Automatic annotation (TrEMBL):
<dbReference type="Pfam" id="PF00196">
    <property type="entry name" value="GerE"/>
</dbReference>
<dbReference type="InterPro" id="IPR000792">
    <property type="entry name" value="Tscrpt_reg_LuxR_C"/>
</dbReference>
<feature type="domain" description="HTH luxR-type">
    <location>
        <begin position="281"/>
        <end position="346"/>
    </location>
</feature>
<keyword id="KW-0238">DNA-binding</keyword>
<keyword id="KW-0804">Transcription</keyword>
<keyword id="KW-0805">Transcription regulation</keyword>
<protein>
    <submittedName>
        <fullName>Helix-turn-helix transcriptional regulator</fullName>
    </submittedName>
</protein>
Length: 365
């Protein structure tokens, strides 16, 4: 078979990006186009939360046997194995082979030893759709033990040909959000007077407020948690913020602030918690300090202690102290367990319930 050029592969990928609907279906079409240039025996597709670089769904029917799914998820959620999505996300390469990631020693990889070898699929390449700022999806490609390994040229070809895929996946997620008709997904606004009576309320805010699981003040017809937040905004300078859980289990973020130039109005903005706030939700639950929250967020994205120290402008020993306290509060023993807590508590239940993904890369509910 005549080898396809980069232009030919890119044209097939971009055709899929223009014509296929749905993020997962788009990745399947891209995979089919890539397979014509770089053959493989099995594969799976993933959608990824850009806030934590953890999977939010995907396609696994043509991947490894199902008995390997749970142990593979456990290893992946730890974020420390070779070719972990979080590690790749911080590199400059969109596609990488397991051989390259391990310096030619794939046996160093836990998922190679425990998953790939028993499954008979010992050749692996991963492809990220995104960059080191945001990752929206990924492909995992496998070849059998009796097949030649993926070459570096294969990874370079696929990485160069799929530059446009991340934008297309995000577009499809936005369209999914619109199609789902989740009209309460956008932010809502409530304006309160000095006595905390509502003077203006958007339709989105009214819908959000019906989901708040709290008692209602009979005079103002607002949940008590909203009034408490408004009192905070009146009593101290600057914005006040809180997070609450709705009756459906969805996290909401409420912001309250006195309006600039007005001494008799406070605004309340209600919106769904964004993906980057998921680590902060767990931080709230376990009463982490502001600095400990920063550390949790960076750990979730796979940064090493020296990188965290540089980003936070503190010593590595200080980072160690923060990590020790975080582990104690969350009752975990390693960064892998912490990242797994994020995945198994926040992602997996939604994946199992087939909750659709919205334009932020996070679940719609």
């Amino acid at each position: 078979m005549r080898a396809k050029t980069l232009d030919q592969v890119t044209a097939g990928v971009e055709r899929a990006c223009r014509t296929v609907s749905g993020a997962v279906e788009l990745e399947r079409a891209v995979c089919a186009s890539l397979r014509e240039a770089v053959p493989f025996d099995a594969w799976c597709a993933l959608t990824v939360d850009p806030g934590s670089v953890l999977p939010t769904g995907g396609w696994h029917r043509e991947g490894l046997p199902l008995e390997y799914m749970n142990p593979m998820l456990e290893i992946e959620a730890g974020g420390q194995d070779a070719l972990a999505l979080s590690t790749m996300a911080r590199s400059c390469r969109r596609a990488m082979t397991l051989t390259a990631a391990t310096g030619g020693q794939p046996e160093r990889s836990r998922h190679y030893r425990e998953i790939l070898v028993p499954a008979g699929m010992t050749r692996e390449m991963r492809v990220l759709f995104g960059d080191n700022a945001s990752v929206w999806g990924a492909l995992v490609l496998f070849r059998g033990a009796d097949a030649p390994d993926f070459a570096d040229a294969d990874a370079q070809l696929i990485g160069d040909a799929t530059i446009s895929v991340a934008t297309a996946i995000r577009r499809e997620m936005v369209l999914t959000e619109i199609t789902a008709d989740d009209t309460a997904a956008g932010p809502g606004l409530v304006l309160l007077d000095r006595d905390l009576h509502p003077t203006t309320m958007s339709s989105a805010a009214a819908r959000w407020l019906t989901q708040v699981d709290d008692g209602i003040d009979p005079h103002r017809e607002l949940p008590f948690c909203v009034l408490t937040l408004a009192h905070q905004a009146w009593s101290r300078p600057g914005p006040a913020r809180t997070r609450i859980r709705s009756r459906t289990g969805r996290w909401l973020t409420l912001h309250a602030e006195q309006l600039a130039g007005a001494d008799d109005q406070v605004s309340i903005i209600i919106e769904a918690a964004r993906p980057v706030e998921i680590a902060a939700l767990i931080a709230d639950t376990y009463r982490l300090t502001s600095r400990e929250r920063d550390v949790v967020g960076l750990i979730a994205r796979g940064f090493a202690r020296t990188e965290i120290a540089r980003l936070l402008t503190v010593s590595a020993y200080t980072v160690d102290d923060h990590i020790k306290r975080v582990f104690g509060k969350l009752e975990v023993r390693s960064r892998a367990e912490l990242t797994a807590k994020l995945f198994f508590d926040q992602h997996l239940p939604r994946i199992e319930n087939e909750v659709p993904i919205g334009g932020t890369g996070w679940f719609l509910r």
